Amino acid sequence: MRWSAHLIVGASLVVAGCAKPAALVFEPADALTITDTKGAPMPKIVVKDDEGQPMEDAPAPQLTFAPDGVVSIDGATLKPARNGKTTLLASIEDGPTTKLAIEVFVVDSISLTCPEPCTVKVGATIKPIAAATGLGLPLVGAFAWSSSSSSVAEVDAASGSVTGKTAGAANIIAKVGDKSATVEVTVVPNVDELRLFCPWPPFVAVRKAGQAPPAEPPVSCETIVGETIGLRAEPWGGGKLQSAELLWTASSTAVTVAKGEVTARTVGGAAVEAKVGDLAVELPVSVYDTKRKRRPGAAECADSAGYSLVSPVALPLKDDAGAPVPPRAFTCANAAAAACLKSGVADIVKATTPLAPDLAAALLDHALAERGRRCCCRATP
């Protein structure tokens, strides 16, 4: 028996001779992903006989989609209708069938927003919000997350949660398909305590988060017109010293302040404030004229560009109870400078005695360093 030639309208069925369709093959046969609104070329469908050879005059397969509505056929193009997955089924009546997996993943746009202000403390987390649309509808799917600086802000690649690592700024990127959006996240120190040290008279003011300002101002720092003194600020968070940039301000023109360096301009007083985030600590500073030195001065210290004293000045310190304090060594400009340095050591040690060990050590170091600077001496390693 031989197959006679027939044409069935709609199915485009053409059979020649006795050869019978044995297989249908998509070329290419790989699963297809459509990522553009223009669509993708319709893959070729090859009808093969039982010997695996293409049939020239073969029946035209019937084509259906399951589910329907994801893709349509427009001539030689597969046109996307909505994002999703579907299967293109090709079949010949009473003959072979084949399937092709198709996914439509078209991204129109992506947006990335962040709670205002877009900041996170070191050790804390923040969650930027990403949204995308595809073919005019909200796109449901996973975003790929990354950070321009993981050492500053680390982002979970799957969830998008951002964890502050160190103070600074980083760009957080959310990507889906070939579209991406970026938002800048600022990481601020997790400061819950701020300490401000005055070199003379030696004392420290401490302010903790959630703590009301002291009812009475602390002891006033003292300086003279034309002198510059250094105030040391220590921001702490979670029991650890933090690296943070502080904002310094002065309440009057009696002094100017920059990065903790306070320069006395005129007789009077000012409140000098150090602030990081929403935590601030304030010290009053009194400025006296040069004839009324309330703070031990360096009049006996000759103006010298260098430090020429051959023998370092050793300070074997002891506290009020006679317990030894690690000795410090200084090299001074001259003998008068060395005497100036030594004259204030007892008061510095006395001021630190009642403090907690970490506060005492920090105040001792700062007050001695400032005393040395004023007396034309510098610490010897």
Number of strands: 35
In round numbers, the mean pLDDT is 84
Number of helices: 3
Domains, number: 4
* Inertia-based shape: rod-shaped
Strand content: 35-45%
CATH top level of the largest domain is Mainly Beta
Q: Any idea what the CATH architecture of the largest domain is?
A: Sandwich
Structural class: mainly beta
Task: Please write out the topology.
Elements (H helix, E strand, L loop, with lengths): L6 E2 L4 E2 L8 E5 L4 E3 L5 E2 L2 E5 L13 E5 L4 E4 L2 E4 L3 E8 L5 E8 L4 E5 L5 E3 L3 E2 L2 E6 L2 E2 L5 E4 L5 E3 L6 E3 L3 E9 L2 E10 L4 E6 L4 E6 L12 E4 L3 E3 L1 E6 L2 E2 L5 E4 L4 E4 L2 E4 L3 E9 L2 E10 L24 E6 L5 E9 L2 H9 L1 H8 L4 H18 L2 E3 L2
Parallel strand pairs: 4-11, 13-21, 24-32
Antiparallel strand pairs: 1-2, 3-6, 5-9, 7-10, 8-9, 10-11, 12-15, 14-19, 15-16, 17-20, 18-19, 20-21, 22-23, 22-26, 25-30, 26-27, 28-31, 29-30, 31-32, 33-34, 34-35
Helix pairs in contact: 2-3
What can you see in these coordinates?
With 381 residues, this protein is mainly beta. The protein has 4 domains: 7-104, Immunoglobulin-like (Sandwich), CATH 2.60.40; 109-188, Sandwich (Immunoglobulin-like); 190-295, Immunoglobulin-like (Sandwich), CATH 2.60.40.1080; 298-381, no CATH class. Helices cover 9% and strands 45% of the residues. The strands form 11 sheets. A 4-stranded mixed β-sheet has the order 4-11-10-7, with no helix packed on it. Strands 13-21-20-17 form a 4-stranded mixed β-sheet, with no helix packed on it. Helix 2 runs antiparallel to helix 3 (357-374). The longest helix has 18 residues, at 357-374.
